[in-house]
Amino acid sequence: MELDRKQINCLITGTVLSAELPAVNEGNRRFVTLFPYVINERGTADKPDKMLDESKQEDVLFALRDCEYPSKYIENDWDVYDGDVIYHRNITDIKGISALQEMLAEIMSDFTHFVPLWETDDIL
Question: Where do the structural domains in the chain lie, given as residue ranges?
Fold first, then answer.
């Protein structure tokens, strides 16, 4: 499975994508979230520019967060504290779309559920 063109375009222009997966623990909700970034001249992480340029898709870096937390936090609009989060994976410095897709293939088989973060219930 691969990310589709729209998902790739979102990522290389800085849009955070998220997908909900079945939770491991009952009463929880699980999300895999992809955070695109670039390293700027000062050596710090920054958002990619909004200019759509396919040639940069292997230059963008990604952080991947795979975690779950009790659904009551979403239902009640509560703040989630680190102690309430179960991290399955929290990986940074994934370089390029190809490496990201390889990493995602270890977690899930269907990438079609990735949408912009604001379209999901992920509150982290």
Answer: 5-116
Higher-confidence position of 113 and 59: 113
Average pLDDT over residues 68-96: 92
Q: What is the C-alpha to C-alpha distance for residues 83 and 107, in angstroms, rounded to an integer?
A: 23
How far apart CA 77 and CA 36 sit, in angstroms, is 26
Residue 17 to residue 11: CA distance in whole angstroms: 7
In this prediction, residues 35-61 reach a mean pLDDT of 88
Output the CA–CA distances (angstroms, integers) from residue 72 to 22, 32, 49, 106, in the order listed: 16, 18, 36, 28
Which tokens is 93 given? 């410095």
Q: Please, which residues have CB within 8 angstroms of residue 18's CB and are 6 or more apart in sequence?
A: 31, 32, 33, 34, 114, 115, 116, 117, 120, 122
**Using an 8 Å Cβ cutoff, are 121 and 29 in contact?**
yes
pTM: 0.91
